[in-house]
Amino acid sequence: MIIGVDNPQNPPESMVETKILDGNIGYIKLWGEFDAGFKNTGKAPSTLGLFRAALVEFNKAKVKGLIIDIRNNVGGLDSMVADMLASFYSEKTFYEYQNCFNTITGSWEIRADDTRKGNASDPGLYIEPDAPFFRGPVVALINLKCTSSGEGLAMGIKNASRGATVGFYGTNGSFGIAGGEAKMPGDIAVHWPYGQSLDRNKQVQIDSRDGVGGIAPSIRTPMTRENALKVARGEDVELEHAIEVINTYETAH
Q1: Which residues make Cβ contacts (< 8 Å) with residue 249, sequence separation at least 6?
Q2: With 92 labelled, which of 53, 78, 116, 134 sits at a CA distance of 20 to 30 A?
Q3: DSSP percent split of the chain into helix, strand, coil, nearest 5
């Protein structure tokens, strides 16, 4: 119910599901950026820990590239996203300013992330390189149901030196910091945002304005007649395309 899977009777085993695809390509299905357990054990494994453990195993296997599937990703903690991206960056890199509305003063304030120690001189959230480091190409699979902090992960992978985003469509364009939520008729969810994510120039990033927003595929999967028919047959065209991108990258380099 939390991650909105199509069949609640058949939930995923974990927030982080991994395997090695044919051709020695690592694959991670990431449902969200928060800790949650699906096995009714009363414990919530560390999602970041599982993510990093997968990278360690992929490095041992010397995979030629990595596909991170964040289609239908529900988001979570921005700080966890920055920590995940730390495995793909060799230099400290700006991620965001969190600009929140103060209901007492009636003004906007840039605040340090709640999970980080405050820094009065620079409250920004940064990607700080950390182990394990993955040197190969990384492709993020995205779609319109990739929302919130999942879109930040897409942005970070797209901006990485060996990163790309692949899919028919871009992400949702709903990157604001939200609080309460109400379920409405017609399968509509209403959120009450109280903050903005700002880029280095303190401009709102990712959120849609006038219908334009989200993170677009850097390598778009074409919605051709052939691909549409494949989708209708249940084939994962976007994943097939991501595998091609990894293989093409290795051939070119």
Answers
A1: 65, 137, 162
A2: 53
A3: 25, 25, 50
Does the pTM surpass 0.85? The reply is: yes
> 3-state DSSP call for residue 209?
strand
For residues 143 and 187, give the distance between their C-alpha atoms in angstroms, rounded to a whole number: 18
CA 47 to chain centre: 13
Q: Report the distance separating Cα 52 and Cα 242, nearest Å.
A: 21
Phi and psi at residue 56, to the nearest 5°: -60, -45
End-to-end CA distance of the chain: 43
Name the DSSP class of 185: T
- The token duo for 9 is 């009777």
Residue 15 near residue 150, CB atoms below 8 Å:
no
- Nearest CA among 104, 93, 76 for reference residue 157: 93
Contact 22, 66 (CB under 8 A): no
Contact predicate 36/44, CB 8 Å: yes
DSSP state of 215: -
- List pLDDT tens digits, range 163-213: 999 999 999 999 988 777 788 888 787 777 788 999 999 999 999 888 789
